[in-house]
Design brief:
alpha/beta; six-stranded mixed β-sheet; two-stranded antiparallel sheet; globular
Length: about 180
């Protein structure tokens, strides 16, 4: 059984952030693949970066992992216990598990599994039709990355397990109000 943990960031991020995430995983004895997205030249004077949804989709499509765990580069588990707990939840290959999130800019009342912390099996991803994380983010029709995957899981009667978020950092998103009581 091949299990991989990935985090993704763009090269404009302060390298200290990924350094400390790496140190935490090293202390836990876990390997984390920290992927730094490339700059993409739009014109002679304008650069952009690979976006998060495209990066996650590409990681899945290019991996040979049986189980995939994603963490944002600034998402750091507080103890090793997250790992066996998450693996136990997803080992049935029918469960998507991870932090609870909502896209305040789209629909504040719709919860889904966060790409900041989630785990699932390759088999679940295939069974769900390989949903792209590239999504339409308009308020009327849209969904945020990972929201589509969560919705497909629910529509196919797969298991979805939400983890409470202990801290949302800069609180850009109203995540804490969606924690399960």
């Amino acid at each position: 059984m091949k299990i991989s943990i990935y985090s993704y960031s763009n090269e404009d991020l302060n390298p200290e952030i990924s350094k400390y995430q790496s140190l935490v995983f090293s202390k836990f004895g876990l390997k984390i693949h920290q992927i730094i997205g490339p700059k993409i030249k739009k014109s002679d004077h304008d650069f952009d970066y690979e976006d998060h949804p495209t990066a996650l989709t590409n990681i899945i499509k290019n991996s040979t992992d049986d189980f995939i765990i994603f963490l944002d580069v600034d998402c750091v588990p507080l103890s090793y216990d997250f790992y066996p707990k998450l693996l136990k939840q997803i080992e049935d290959k029918k469960t998507l598990a991870g932090g609870i999130q909502c896209a305040n800019h789209i629909n504040i009342n719709k919860s889904y599994i966060s790409p900041a912390f989630c785990g699932f099996s390759r088999q679940l991803y295939l069974d769900c039709g390989e949903p792209s994380f590239n999504t339409d983010r308009t308020p009327l029709l849209g969904c945020d990355n990972m929201q589509r995957f969560t919705d497909v899981c629910l529509n196919l009667n797969k298991n979805v397990i939400y983890w409470n978020v202990t801290d949302g950092g800069n609180n850009k998103w109203d995540i804490l109000s969606h924690n399960m009581k």
